[in-house]
Specification:
This protein is mainly alpha-helical and 231 residues long. The protein has helices at 7-16, 20-29, 43-53, 57-64, 71-82, 87-97, 104-109, 119-130, 135-148, 160-163, 170-186, 188-196, 202-213, 220-228. Helix 3 (43-53) packs across helix 5 (71-82). The longest helix has 17 residues, at 170-186.
């Protein structure tokens, strides 16, 4: 029988997987958090733990105990949430966790598999999240919109959701630019109008063009046209 893992032993397990060079590298990518809060566990290792613990009593107890003390614990928390198979439960756990998310890496790690089968309900939650004054709750909402509603479930009105966000926060504005650059690659005709009509904040407008021009999914001709729209 596998030993029961409480929060303390989960943290001990993370420290056994510590890579100090990786911790230093990660700290440079996440300047909004303390270097001392980063253990330095690589994401593939955290995914293995999440796969092993997913749906277990240990995972349930770990998710209940907030806030965590380490960045890596928060990453693991997001990965465990992503393993939850019940949509309603997953949403409850996300809503409880989002107020504690304080960096882009933890925010962007969460990608619940159950969302794919619940898009009708999900779009309403996305509208709620993206209108939040909390930076990473807002960012999470936009990223879910980008992940699940730019392909077969796309509707023109979904492009309006990010344009309604009024924020000077870097990590929100960058996510909006990423969203529109991806939308240009997937839904060019509907999206390029937003640049032609200057519907976006100037910084977001120009960053969208930059990111789109870095994409291999945008044609050479499209990139040339986008550059002509730079403000």
């Amino acid at each position: 029988m596998r030993k029961h893992l409480n929060d303390k032993t989960i943290t001990e397990e993370l420290f056994k997987l510590q890579d100090k060079k990786y911790a230093l590298f990660q700290s440079k990518l996440t300047p909004t958090i303390s270097r001392d809060s980063i253990i330095g566990v690589r994401v593939p290792e955290l995914r293995k733990i999440a796969k092993r613990l997913g749906g277990s009593l240990e995972a349930g107890e770990f998710i209940k105990n907030l806030p965590h003390g380490y960045f890596d614990e928060n990453i693991l928390h997001g990965l465990l949430i992503s393993e939850i198979k019940d949509y309603a439960e997953c949403i409850r756990k996300i809503d409880k966790f989002l107020p504690y998310v304080d960096n882009w890496a933890v925010c962007d790690t969460m990608s619940p598999k159950v969302f794919k089968k619940n898009k009708g309900a999900l779009i309403n939650k996305i509208t709620q999240w993206s209108s939040s004054a909390r930076v990473y709750e807002c960012r999470f909402g936009i990223r879910m919109l980008m992940s699940y509603f730019l392909d077969e479930d796309f509707r023109n009105e979904y492009l309006k959701i990010p344009t309604c966000i009024k924020s000077d926060e870097y990590y929100v504005k960058m996510m909006i630019a990423w969203f529109f650059a991806t939308a240009l690659a997937k839904q060019w005709s509907a999206t390029v109008i937003y640049l032609e009509c200057n519907n976006l904040d100037k910084w977001v407008h120009n960053k969208t063009i930059q990111k789109a021009c870095e994409s291999y999914r945008i044609t050479k001709e499209q990139k040339e046209y986008l550059r002509s729209l730079k403000r």
